[in-house]
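User
Please review the sequence:
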Amino acid sequence: MPSLPPFLPATDTLPPGRFPMSWEEVEEDLVWNRRFAASTTRWEIFKEWTLHRAAVEAVLGSVSRMWLAGSFVSGKIDPSDVDVTYLVAHDVYDAHAADSDLAEYLDNLGTRDWCVAQHMRVDARILRLPETVRFQDLGVTGAMAPGDRDVFYQLGLFDEIWQRCRPTMGDTRTDSRRGYVEVLL
């Protein structure tokens, strides 16, 4: 896979879009890149995220892919945390959501305050992927799997959230857009 495009000079973020990377490429480009050599937080945050990912995978057994955004996916030398959305296959998610103890633990893993209490600078969400996979079935009455309308809504919501920028001091733009990374596993 190609490395990330250059950060935009005006925002120090990726250009709008979703950029696929492997786990190893994320570490190489967003932790060890010489641009971040002076960082005092990137490696520590990456280690904390690695532990968090291991906890999510220990509960679920697998994660399909992840969306990575925020200051960790920017030119900021010392980000304060990593924003990550774990995308989980519908059958895996549903099997664990039915178990109240596992569902509570997953809810904790997806709660920023809980992560901070565990000394992890991780702001995480855990989302179910749709059951409907055939393009032909999308939007066809009765063809889409029950509940997938809400699943697609949540995915679209977070896609939109991850592409938004917080305005910087003196920034008068009302719709600053940025890109984010899709970590392929």
